[in-house]
Specification:
CATH superfamily: Nucleotidyltransferases  domain 2
Oligomer: single chain
Strand order of the largest sheet: 1-2
Structural class: mainly alpha
Shape: globular
Helix content: over 70%
Length: 136
């Protein structure tokens, strides 16, 4: 775990939050679900969640080198969702396997990740936005 402290940047954090929302909206509405698109969908969904965690850290003036800290920050949020947000850490591990071991996800795994996104992202997005705006 490598953390570097810097000046809090609310404007950048808000920009990251909005980029995350755009990426998630594009992924869920524009990419047709198939085994061929599965890797891209999982990567994009994961990246959208990771960006929310990064925005929280950026707003606090913390620069994390790895994704673990960004995901941990996101998992600290107290939000109500239809699925446990702890599953995002499983998503991080799945994305790692896709990127570094050439794992190909099944259609069931892709649909599960989409379900996680649909059931958790908006609540996390709203809470992240609220927290960052409160810090500004």
């Amino acid at each position: 775990m490598t953390i570097r402290y810097k000046r809090p940047d609310i404007k950048n954090a808000l920009s990251i939050i909005e980029a995350s929302k755009r990426e998630m909206n594009f992924t869920l509405s524009s990419i047709k679900v198939s085994e061929e698109s599965g890797t891209t969908i999982i990567r994009n969904v994961y990246e959208s969640f990771r960006m929310l965690g990064d925005a929280l850290l950026t707003a606090k003036g913390i620069s994390a080198i790895d994704h673990v800290e960004q995901i941990k920050e996101l998992l600290k949020l107290n939000v109500r969702t239809n699925r446990p947000i702890q599953l995002i850490d499983n998503l991080r591990q799945l994305r790692h396997n896709l990127n570094y071991y050439g794992y190909r996800p099944s259609l069931i795994e892709v649909e599960d990740v989409i379900s996680l996104a649909k059931n958790c992202f908006n609540a996390l997005y709203l809470e992240t936005n609220k927290i960052v705006n409160g810090l500004g």
